[in-house]
Amino acid sequence: MVRFLGALVGLFFSGILVLSFINGAIAVAPVLSEHGHLVAPTVEHEFHKHPKKVAWSFDGPFGHYDKAQLQRGFQVYTEVCSACHSLHQVSFRSLSDLGYSEAEVKAIAKARQVPDVDPKTGEPATRPGMPADKFPLVYPNDVAARAANNNAIPPDLSLIAKSRHDGANYVHSLLTGFTSQQGYKNEKGEELLKKFPDAKTPEGGHFNPYFANLNLAMAPPLTAEGQVTYGPGQPKPTVDQMAQDVSAFLMWTAEPKMEARKSTGIAVVVFLLFATVLAWMSYQNIWANKEH
């Protein structure tokens, strides 16, 4: 009797599983027949673009930073990006790695006000920065940041090149990728607003196919050639050049020890190769007259 009841319970649950499978197949059949796969395509999947590739000086195992480019990138950050974006994980003294002298680092730090405490009253105060200080926050808190930026919080840029896929390429593509959504087509030639009429960029937003959801609150920061004036002997400050320079600078802020890491890696590989050859030669010498 118990076996009979167990068999009935098993058949019952098996029937439920079969019905669930049939119901699911019926539900996905229209999507599968229309799109060729189980999940209907989204506007982000169909129109998001991968970052453009740039030939960076720091690419590859022997790559290194171009200090002149990093200084230009710091200039672009200072004159364009620093109005909204902080660089709070970077110390002023680290700028000496870019080729700035001690006096120049002190001048850069002194030009910025950093938070402090009045030693007489204990009240919050500010003072000129020192080389040991980090770059101050642009906004004191998230509420102030949202209030000044259409309810969006500008991210800190210290590690942005490491926290985004394809790092410097992503930053460069994002800065140069702003375009009009009207008439925009993907690589298949499909027009965005014709295929997804409800995907119109919201008011206050800006269309950029390199951004994850295609729309972001930040307006195009680099808009015209000569927006930043480079010194003599430097390349022409086109939008693309300025974007490349600040992208390289942000790669340095995220990976300031990259050159040392690569040098150490090369030395370790050379040592291991030498040790391998030495071990093989020792093996041949020790076991030369032994049967094995």
Q: Can you give me a brief rundown of this structure?
A:
This protein is mainly alpha-helical and 292 residues long.
Oligomer: single chain
- Bin the strand percentage: under 5%
**Sequence of secondary-structure elements:** HHHHEEHHHHEEHH
The major pleated sheet works out as: 2 strands, antiparallel
Q: Fraction of residues in helices?
A: 40-55%
List unreliable stretches of 5+ residues. Answer: none
The DSSP helix count reads: 10
Termini Cα gap? 69 Å
The radius of gyration computed from the alpha-carbon positions, rounded to a whole number of angstroms, is 29 Å
Q: Give the overall shape.
A: extended
Strand elements, count: 4
Mean pLDDT: 90
Describe this structure in words.
There is one protein chain. This protein has a domain at 262-292. Helices cover 45% and strands 5% of the residues. The protein contains ten helices and four strands; from the N terminus they run H-H-H-H-E-E-H-H-H-H-E-E-H-H. The chain has helices at residues 2-35, 43-47, 67-79, 102-110, 142-148, 160-163, 167-176, 192-195, 239-254, 258-286; strands spanning 113-117, 124-128, 206-207, 215-216. The strands form two sheets. A two-stranded antiparallel sheet has the order 1-2. A hairpin with a 7-residue loop joins strand 3 (206-207) and strand 4. Helix 3 (67-79) crosses helix 9 (239-254) and helix 7 (167-176) runs antiparallel to helix 9 (239-254).
